From TrEMBL:
The lineage of its organism: Bacteria, Pseudomonadati, Pseudomonadota, Betaproteobacteria, Burkholderiales. Residues 132-156 are annotated as: Disordered. It holds the Pfam family Glyoxalase. Keywords: Dioxygenase, Oxidoreductase. It comes from Pigmentiphaga kullae. Residues 18-125, 162-277 form the VOC domain. Residues 132-151 have a biased composition (Low complexity). This is Glyoxalase/bleomycin resistance protein/dioxygenase superfamily protein. GO terms for molecular function: dioxygenase activity.
Amino acid sequence: MRAPALTTHLERRAAVHSVDCFVYSVPDLAEAERFYLAFGLDVRRRAGHLELRTHGHPHVWSRIHEGGMTKRLQYVRYGIHARDLDEIRSRIEDAGLRTDPHDWSDGQGLWLRDPDGTPLQLVVADKVSPAAKSPPTAVAPVPPGQGAAPARSRVQPVRPRHLSHILFFTPDVPRMVDFCRTILGLRVSDHSGDLIAFMHGIHGSDHHLVAFAKSHARGLHHSSWDVGSLDEVGRGSEQMRIAGHAQGWGVGRHVLGSNYFYYVRDPWGSWAEYSYDIDYVPAGLDWPAADHPPEDSLYVWGPPLPADFITNQEYPG
């Protein structure tokens, strides 16, 4: 099989490089704090909101505010390189997409709305998407004659290492893909008709930095968090069941992206994913994107899909 071609022109195109932060609101911050602490994140209270970090990493991956009767995606912040600022600003202005900053933001950077009306903030920032494929957690080899599994009472908490990707709902997947390609500079990794699409960053990212699933309305389906082993995926599922969050999907393995997964249902009907060993798209690689039949677009193995897994609870139909 011919190796995918490296196309250096891709690296010269202005494009977002990271999902810098996603911001949403929930009815009860205390409930959100309990959920994400159990999930293994570093949760910090601030005036009127929570910050979600990963342990040992200074970056704020998400901010959660309190308000409303249901969960609501408020805005998404993407990181860009300083050299790309002027070109991306011109794209936004030429397309007539400029908008005012969100009231809960710092007001910085470029502001626009995507085709579904979600505000987007683009800021010059350090790249926080992975610079290479995430390595497995180092584990000392166990010689023959000794047990490799730890005692249940001595299992350490699972703590994700970084945000891998986010999947959003959209009423029009092809329209959203076109927007992300032409305005944000993302590229399609794989898709299944107009049902779902996965997109990566040209400066190097996991198989998908963002993904879009068809629904009747916009919304946040899940956030995905990188862990270092299949064992951590399984331990995470048990960790959340012990904490009282028994509804989930997995453990299993995806086809597109190849990662092992476990999804846990959050208190608002969306999902948080433990993800291990996702495919990586290096900067400049022309990934061989394809249109996959629905049966080949979701998982290789795992338990049956929950009936409400692809239900938009943010805007009930």
